[in-house]
Amino acid sequence: MASAAAQPAALSAEQAKVVLAEVIQAFSAPENAVRMDEAGDNACNDMGKMLQFVLPVATQIQQEVIKAYGFSCDGEGVLKFARLVKSYEAQDPETASLSGKLKALFLPPMTLPPHGPAAGGGSVAAS
Prior knowledge:
The protein has helices spanning about 1-5, 15-30, 30-45, 45-65, 75-90, 95-105. It is mainly α and about 130 residues long. Helix 2 crosses helix 4 and helix 5 packs antiparallel against helix 6 (about 95-105).
């Protein structure tokens, strides 16, 4: 009875790829795409607001998929799934690629400040 739910899910690398692909596909479902768009609009590319609005929706979408594979239907289940995927990333480039695609769905791209010489030539003329 409760023992199946309490037992941590164990997926092979191949199974993890299948589940990752299903999670990515779930983000494409029309109702989930609308939910993510609304959350993204509310966040306005502000990292703090992304955590407040986008991350909970992304977590819910993942939970809906991974619960069928024995993960608990809460934040802890998503964290366990993420740790499992992370453990396979170094061994399998396809898993790493799928994981990157998943993260890109709900994490904003990190922009680095420009480096190198200033566009104006480095000197400022005062009149």
